[in-house]
Structure formats: structure tokens, C-alpha cells
What does this fold into?
Amino acid sequence: MVRLVLAATLGASYGIYGPAFELLEHVAREPGSEEYVDSEKYELRHWDLERTDSLRDFIARVNRIRHDQAPLQSNRRLKFHTIDNGALIAYSKTSADDSQAILVVVNLDPHNTQTGFLDVDLAAIGVTAEHPFQVHDLLSGARYMWQGARNYIALDPHLAAAHILRIRHHVRSERDFDYFA
It folds into this structure.
């Protein structure tokens, strides 16, 4: 999941080798080799694509996010942000017209929960320190209210190895809704 999120969000385009990646093939043919045991290079494989441990749904969700979010379709506006834990990486991408911003935070440790304080370059994502803003995690659906540049992050790799956060500049309040009697 970590490799997929990094490849899908850092680059404007990416690719994976379908069934082997989706079904987590990882046993090397021999120590130090990049080829996996029972590679299709040497034999025909029949993949059980309905396995419960498949990454198919996660891959589809990430691809949908890439398709729907203009900032992820370009490399021109990539900005790395400071985070006080070396096991976490954070970066943002904005659309060409600066109307949309995506902030990605990834736990690089596949075994342990990692936490830290993220120092967001607010100008890079189009918000000011004076106003709160909402971040919507497109992977989990969770929404968080942030204000200012310094924000707490916790990522458990067994629950969510990454956040792909859409920045909402306008935070709705009760004054933003029409009420009908």
C-alpha cells in the first residue's frame, strides 16, 4: 500500500504489474533477486483474483482518487513539508490554477504506528494561519479541522498506511445552510 500511494501520488503517471502486485507476491526466486518465485516469465499462472487479501479494492480507490483530483495528474507543483518523524513523509500538490490542493502523508514503517507533528507550508496549499481549514482524507473518508501550520499526524500501517488529504479552503458553518420551514 505504501509503494502504491507513493507511486500514484508523487508521479503524474505510474504503473504496476497487476496480479503479482495486487496479490502481494513477494517471495524472491533467490536471495537478492528482484524476480519472484513462480514468475510468469517461466510458467503460465492462473491467478485467484477473488482472494480476500487482494489489494484490488485499495488500488481501485487510489486510481479513482487520482482520476478525480487534478493536482495528482501533474508533477509541476510538488512541495515537500517538514515533519518531525523520519518514518513519515509529507508532500502536497496543487492544481495549475491553485484552486485545488492535495496533501499526502505516508508512514514508511510497515510494522509500527508512527506519529509526528507536520509543519505545513500554508502558502503552498493556499490557506492562511488565521482561518481554520478542513482536510478530507480521500482514502478513509475522515475529515479533520486544522488551523495553522503545525498539525498532529498518527498513522497505523495496519489500519491506514497513508492519508491523501484534500484541502477544503472554505469551512462551512451553520450560516452557510438554507433552512426551510
Notes: The chain has four helices and eight strands. Strands lie at 78-83, 88-94, 101-107, 114-119, 133-137, 143-146, 150-155, 162-168. The helical segments are 2-10, 18-22, 56-68, 122-125.
